[in-house]
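Box S1 | Example of a co-folding query
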Amino acid sequence: MYLREPCYDIDELKKENLHIHTFYSSCAKPSMDIETIVRQAEKAGLRRIAVTDHFNDPDFPVVEYNEEMRKKVKQLGAKVDVLFGAELSAYGIGKFLDRTEINKALDYRLYSCNHYHLDYWEHPEDKTPRGYAEHALKVVEALAKSGRADCVAHPFIGRFVKIFEDRNLITNSITDNEIGDILTILKENNVAYELNAGAVIGYPEFARRIWNIGKEVGVVFHMGMDAHRPESVDTADAAENFKKILL
Ligand SMILES: [Zn+2]
Ligand SMILES: [Zn+2]
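Box S1 (continued) | Returned holo structure for zinc ion
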């Protein structure tokens, strides 16, 4: 379990990268072993990182992999604090792929709520942008209230729904009031909202709305690069982009 105090200074936020895939995620580069990741993080001057492999199969042995990596990090005498977590799946309203024992064994529980491109993911009956927006809001709300999550990864962005030509239709259909309400629910349930590199840079207008309303509400933002390659462990370039987009 990990949640920081609210912080809206990007130069502070960038000292953490809480979304990193190792080679145990099939989409990550084979060079993403824990030693390489730790060395990259140290070189970048990061204070804390989280490894968050995809959990798309209830039998994926994430706890065993994490314990293996934890031993290795101890041997390395790493200067960076490493959280051993997972990118878990809230694949529908109140639906979670991880068993409670797995959830409890993780240092950091990052949840995806919108991996609609995966075959087991629940879709709304109403397959319009607004239908997806309402579904996603309900999935995030149920997740926040479940007590299972530390942070929500790349919420609401449309890139995983492949049926609309304009990827902004879903996020555009969410009102400022709805953003205020969902961020308040996250805050009240001690769940952070991820400033995901791809989501902020790919959906700048929506990211700015989230940032401004989030500051008012007092939500906690966590920074996550969604790193799949060693170069993306460093947060410096993304942080500069975040400043241009958000401030
Ligand atoms: Zn994801
Ligand atoms: Zn990811």
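Residues 129-146 form the longest helix (18 residues). The chain is about 40% helix and 15% strand.
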